[in-house]
Amino acid sequence: MVNRNAHFYPIILAGGRGTRFWPLSRKRRAKQLLALDGKQTMIQQTAQRLAPLALPTHFWIITNEDSRPAILRQLRKIPAKQIMAEPIGRNTAPAIGLAAFLLLRRDPNAVLGMFPSDHVIGDAAQYRATLSRGIEIASAGENIVVLGIRPTRPEIGYGYIEAGSHETDAAGEHGSLRVRRFTEKPDLAAAAKFVESGNYFWNSGMFLWRADTLADALREYLPKTARLLERIASTYGTGKFADTFRKLYPKCENISIDYAVLEPRSAQGERQSHIFCLPSDFGWNDLGSWAALHEHRVAKAKPANGGPVSASGSVDLNAKNNFVYAPGKFVALVGVSNLIVVETEDALLVTTLDQSQEVGKVVTYLDEKKLHKLV
Amino acid sequence: MVNRNAHFYPIILAGGRGTRFWPLSRKRRAKQLLALDGKQTMIQQTAQRLAPLALPTHFWIITNEDSRPAILRQLRKIPAKQIMAEPIGRNTAPAIGLAAFLLLRRDPNAVLGMFPSDHVIGDAAQYRATLSRGIEIASAGENIVVLGIRPTRPEIGYGYIEAGSHETDAAGEHGSLRVRRFTEKPDLAAAAKFVESGNYFWNSGMFLWRADTLADALREYLPKTARLLERIASTYGTGKFADTFRKLYPKCENISIDYAVLEPRSAQGERQSHIFCLPSDFGWNDLGSWAALHEHRVAKAKPANGGPVSASGSVDLNAKNNFVYAPGKFVALVGVSNLIVVETEDALLVTTLDQSQEVGKVVTYLDEKKLHKLV
Asked: Are residues A13 and A73 in the same domain?
């Protein structure tokens, strides 16, 4: 059973650009605004998935000016003033930090969840059950909860969490592991060992903590930024807010919450840090590239030999395992395999499953050449 | 120097569909109607290239109902009634045969040239010089002249001509070789030997002969078809023609002129057959597939690493030797090589240089599935 926690506030971070999904993703149509998996967009799915856990008025979105108009259209139930556009991207620490200082003034018992806006979750019920447990653990005081994904392959693109001892509570099973260490992205050999060991988890980027716990941590580890954020938060609801936000936020440190708070805090040792990992098995996929989306679609739909094709029709002759997105076209694949082909009104991308993580470089090129219409 | 020969009649055969150029080629937009090499279409280039050798009123086009409207638009100088649509395709023997019987009635000294409508010729001046010599040889009586392309690779897709002894005339060099034998498409080992030998040539499908020589040959080798064609020709210019053509032409044998006349005639021996091969070096390319067009463009334009790209713009990252046709799109190639990608308003083809000769099978599939709009 999943119940709404009256003090739970989901903070959805939607400031990314998702350039690896070019040409479908654009500056004003970032990855989280695309319906990459189903009919709803990634951010709509994120909000809907969390809806049973929190009041609509408890959702906050931190995004940017380019994405805000589309988010307002896509998430009509969330109060518009809680869909906030950063004047400039400052990574996750200032974003979630601002939310902590804002909510602390509203609800001294607020528990924050930090959620990326562009991930896929296969089993939403399982996801909510995991989160409910996490909210409970986080509510209990100075605990920090991180959702750790049980690794299924030696992925070198993710950070890993090394878990320590099992935690039990009065009722028996606490359901979490104490965190021993956050690790940087490993090389392939290390990643393979991590997967084998059984006590390493992928860092999902989903965290839970009380607003006061986070605020205290920021004051300790990022004092200058914490002061700036407190000043911004203090003007919220007044005529000064817009101006203060625009002037002070860019002065915050450009740093992730992992690097700013979690890593130094975990260095205190697994007993002292109060960081807990909730092992998670709810079919998580961060859709980090076209290849990841391909893999997700293959696993979900088991498409024909040629591979997953979005088109008005298609035929494959001696073709295998391609990903094609060309809505409205009839697609013929002849003797090709492991390709990614994505077509939009004004652009055509051709790459391979292996190389699709390089697609962001195309956007870098287009930015450099000032081909604004294409980015 | 090239002079117009008052009795020379170019017969351009334009009944092919060119399915290997799908999705660009369609039933009503066959390969010869496409501008695959430059601004003019293949058939326009064919006619223009021959223009200095023959009067505009001497051109005849044999095509089909699907292509005739476009040819009328593309070749306005040629008399409309000389752009003839076969009621049904019957291969080259009836097509060129009909022309022979028609012209015989107009000009007893007519010399016919049979020309495919969809080939590329790199050096038009050299081409015309070769043809001029061929017209001279053909004019001289019962000679048949075939243009033989000096082979540059062991191509297994072509028929070969085995040449025999050099022919000299009173003035010294006749400029041609007697033909010993026409061979079927060879296997790779045989083709390699042919190329090495120096006396094998690719059969270009371009022939020259007097109308009466061809008519006599047809009467000898295809007597039933010859009689049908004579009956059709006898009604030309009368009200009965359309009906006779429609009724009798389908009864002609469905056979190539090579197989019907040239091969049996060459079996008489190189002295008796009077078939001459003119060795030709004018940059011929039959553009038999997307890969052949790719090769032609690479040789002609030496494009950037990524390969020849027709698009509004493009970038290649670690990409090599691809052929892309996507007009109006910005194309990004990331880590791919030796691919062919062709996009039209309603279709997208993805294949490889190696497999592009299989593209015709896509059209077979579309025909079978009655996807008429796509063929």
From this structure: yes
